[in-house]
């Protein structure tokens, strides 16, 4: 079986730990690869390669760094279909969705092309006689990224584009479930002229993650994944003195007010609830129907579901692919039984769909109605094609429900009333808000991140906050020697 290796110091390095894990094609259920799982020593080697590369890379001019990022952009643009195919073959999402993921990642590379402007500092002339002050931002050194299975191309790019453009060396620990995209990206960076060792990939699991968290030379860690692991990474990383941003899970509500266009809301709920089989951290997983529109909205959502074509991601007609693993598919499906046992109505049971031949990890589109906030299907992040509808008596009830939820990643409001929409964005406790936009993922020149249990740490990811996260500030106060004004003065430096 083909092995998936590490990428250290500009080349593929076969694993030496003796541990490997299986990688599957979720559309067939068959194992396609073995991925190396790193030992602590292999993580040490990746960090050592980064440490070696860092001094020359941080001294590389901003124009040269921008040149390399322009070339990365060109190569990624040309090779987008290839990368999308790799994503589909191990993640399962349909090709058009994989291409969309690559495109959103590419936008982060475009943002990083502007690094000369992004790293401009401030300057104050004559803060005291002949004294000037300026501020600069400098890279941290070796920084690491730990990424989830659901965006094997985009999330790593969210991190490394800004980190490397800022002058850091980067160690990526991708998900062991779909690790090949990381090596494709490593090749693209090398082909674009990035010096060896500036970008390294270490394949692995908890052993590699914990080695990164404990490594004294790793200055900062970016993490995206589930909330329990995000909390672990934040607590252990910060305890070891690192800067950490750890993005966790989500339970995104789509609040539909009685004045909304219900057809548009139903289209949006289906698109955002079942796109990528619900395995997006910004997927809508709860529709909150406000007032007396519940029955009509549920009917409109339900009538759309049989029309969604489910199949292998490589099938050009498929709109929704399989889930990532058999275990995850079965766990997602179990929320239908627990939902019914706890009082919800199963409007559509996707387990009854015969989706495809073979043993792929498919589950059809499922819809639960009359869900309440005490049920497991409401409380847990399901991360699959099971959409829950809850009813709220009023706008105030809906906002109370969203704000009481422990997660606070994305939220959307559907309404025609601009005044209520403005009130909603003011009152709601979530990091990313959509008004008639169901998946409000910020563009690359804003930053991405949730609130509450969806984010540990202060810093959102990519965009301006990404640049801030991967650099530290320095302020220089300078006076050019002028013998004519020089005296001994033991007083505290004064500005007036
Ligand atoms: P995960 O938490 O299982 O894995 C994420 C990373 O952590 C992987 O690299 C994995 O190898 C590592 N990991 C897993 N278990 C670990 C352990 N015990 N100790 C140390 N490291 C460990 O997440 P996943 O299943 O790959 O991804 C899905 C989750 O990611 C969902 O909860 C989803 O909401 C979340 N997610 C969040 C965002 C966001 O921006 N907030 C974006 C994408 C995904």
User: Tell me about the biggest sheet?
Assistant: 7 strands, mixed
Based on secondary structure, the structural category is alpha/beta
Helix content class:
25-40%
Low-confidence stretches: none
Share of residues in strands: 15-25%
Whole-number mean pLDDT? 97
Could you explain the architecture of this structure?
This protein has 496 residues and is of the alpha/beta class. The protein is 38% helix and 23% strand. Strands 15-16-17-14-13-19-20 form a seven-stranded mixed sheet, with helices on both faces. It has a six-stranded mixed sheet with strand order 10-9-8-11-12-22, with helices on both faces. Strands 1-5-4 form a three-stranded mixed sheet, covered by helices on one side. It has helices spanning 40-58, 62-91, 95-113, 115-118, 154-165, 180-191, 206-214, 227-239, 262-274, 294-304, 326-341, 376-379, 395-404, 418-427, 463-469, and strands at 2-4, 6-8, 11-13, 20-25, 30-36, 122-128, 131-139, 142-146, 169-173, 199-201, 218-224, 243-247, 252-256, 284-290, 345-348, 366-369, 386-392, 407-408, 410-414, 432-435, 451-452, 455-456, 471-479. The site of nicotinamide-adenine-dinucleotide has 28 residues, from α7 and α8.
